[in-house]
């Protein structure tokens, strides 16, 4: 494999298989509390799956930089726990009914228990991270968590109104790219590389995260419910304008703008249908515009790896941005 | 003052005046976010006051053990931030309308923003604590926070049913005594004393915290609304059995027990009045029983200071347990 390009998700998965299994075990062991409700909620969330993209990035980052210790399994579980904790609290805030195709935890256990289970998962993530006895690890994780929490609050303040592309970029940085960046940087911290190398790995995660979220937001607008496994256009239903929508808002006709603003305000498709919105986006080539930006970020991610020594792990990292922009769900 | 016993709150306050002001400034500076809602909620909570008993304990602990650096101001703000974060999330869970005589934050900003503001305050507390670059400080704080969060969940599971004295002790340890203990231990960590001395200081905080919460719970049952500044018997209205109530449950007549169970189930005083409950407690001498246990904990707290060198700060620490058990609000 070492002289060819990685071409499939399976090859990457094979490369990380044992470590990802170890991370699942670590997460499972970590998420056990003496309080039954916490263990139940944690297990439910953990078993709900998810792509484990953040631990995979951390593993690839650490391994591509020559690290081979046990810290990457612990910290892989940590970034997934932080991610899970944010999902629990976000579902409460969005009053979400489903998550990953199943009832969301708050519909089963109620908001109160989920507030506390989320708190506990944050603390447990920090507790496991603390075992590394590395202040830089904690600096990164705590700074990250604050960025994410602030981002969710900023998001709330934009609901129902148009946002600028600049605001959108800040929101998706906080929502997604920030944790991708930190996952990559943690790999560098474990591998004890210099600051410049860590910054490049962070740049990769940052750009990849932006590409990932832009594509996620496009799929929410354009995919079918069967493919996506969740209700489509949920962002518009929550009053969130994402990149393609912002493009049509800024470049469409006054009538286009009016129609979009109606949906953002109504937070439903009663006066303007989802189909009408898709027609507006199509007429303004707004989905192409957003996809192009995602491609540019993906390219920027790959470029950030220029000085990384060649390895299977580097090839996997080079492949991930393509996968992220080409996926259909 | 050095040869006499400290006798008033004012003397203790004078002793800590400058440091407590510095802690208020630190808390004020720390609780500023680039996100307006967070700063607003933090300011609201900070300005709501509170007794600042946790930072005071930390200061007295550090100073009585010879510490004089800036860490105690930072960590004093940290323990108050952790305390504030737990209050924000607890008020959401209890659906509380008031806190410290004012509307609770969730009634003003809504639950969603308060979930996130609480998260942010926890992270900010850890971020400031991290500046100490001391792993023991972080171990104590993160272990503490998990104990408190688990305690709140355990509390939820007991609502509306009788609990044993053992369960009650565990709940009040997690709710109050644990943070008192950690505040005292943090003073020891700053002063770099040996493990045995730290354990004694922790024992003081632990015992004091139990005494504090037992008295708090008694006042909730027996004080008048004017004196307390909040609705009386709120614990029973929430279905919480506290120490005096537990004593009557276990030692009263079957009729007494029936009446108490009715209130715990109904979570109101419609079928059995507050006055009838007070008569039951009085007939069984249950308030005396609970007060006696509080006195014993207060005595145990004082005894834990036996080997601490004499100083104004030690005298203040010796005075605090008396104050805690003698207060009427």
UniProtKB/TrEMBL annotation, chains A, B:
GO terms for biological process: isoprenoid biosynthetic process. The keyword Magnesium applies. Its cofactor is Mg(2+). It holds the Pfam family polyprenyl_synt. One of its GO terms (molecular function) is prenyltransferase activity. Keywords: Magnesium, Metal-binding, Transferase. Belongs to the FPP/GGPP synthase family. This is Polyprenyl synthetase family protein. It comes from Alloacidobacterium dinghuense.
């Amino acid at each position: 494999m070492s002289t060819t390009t990685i071409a499939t998700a399976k090859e990457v998965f094979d490369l990380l298989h044992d470590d990802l299994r170890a991370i699942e075990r670590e997460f499972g062991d970590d998420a056990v509390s003496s309080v039954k409700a916490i263990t139940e909620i944690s297990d439910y969330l953990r078993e709900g799956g998810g792509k484990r993209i953040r631990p995979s990035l951390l593993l690839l980052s650490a391994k591509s930089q020559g690290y081979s210790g046990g810290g990457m399994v612990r910290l892989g579980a940590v970034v997934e726990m932080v991610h899970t904790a944010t999902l629990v609290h976000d579902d409460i805030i969005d009053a979400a009914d489903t998550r990953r195709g199943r009832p969301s935890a708050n519909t089963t256990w109620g908001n109160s228990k989920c507030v506390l289970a989320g708190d506990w998962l944050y603390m447990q993530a920090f507790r496991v991270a603390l075992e590394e006895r590395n202040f830089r690890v904690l600096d990164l994780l705590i700074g990250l968590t604050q960025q994410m929490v602030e981002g969710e609050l900023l998001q709330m303040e934009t609901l129902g109104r148009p946002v600028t592309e600049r605001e959108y970029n800040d929101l998706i940085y906080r929502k997604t790219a920030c944790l991708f960046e930190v996952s990559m940087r943690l790999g560098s911290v474990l591998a004890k590389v210099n600051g410049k190398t860590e910054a490049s790995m962070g740049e990769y995660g940052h750009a990849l995260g932006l590409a990932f979220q832009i594509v996620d937001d496009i799929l929410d607008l354009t995919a079918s419910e069967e493919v996506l496994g969740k209700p489509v256009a949920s962002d518009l239903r929550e009053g969130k304008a994402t990149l393609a929508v912002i493009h049509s808002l800024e470049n469409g006709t006054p009538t286009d703008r009016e129609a979009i603003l109606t949906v953002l305000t109504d937070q439903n498709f009663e006066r303007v249908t989802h189909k009408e919105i898709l027609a507006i986006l199509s007429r303004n080539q707004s989905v192409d515009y957003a996809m192009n930006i995602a491609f540019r970020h993906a390219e920027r991610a790959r470029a950030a790896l220029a000085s990384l020594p060649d390895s299977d792990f580097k090839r996997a990292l080079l492949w991930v941005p393509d996968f992220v922009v080409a996926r259909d769900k």
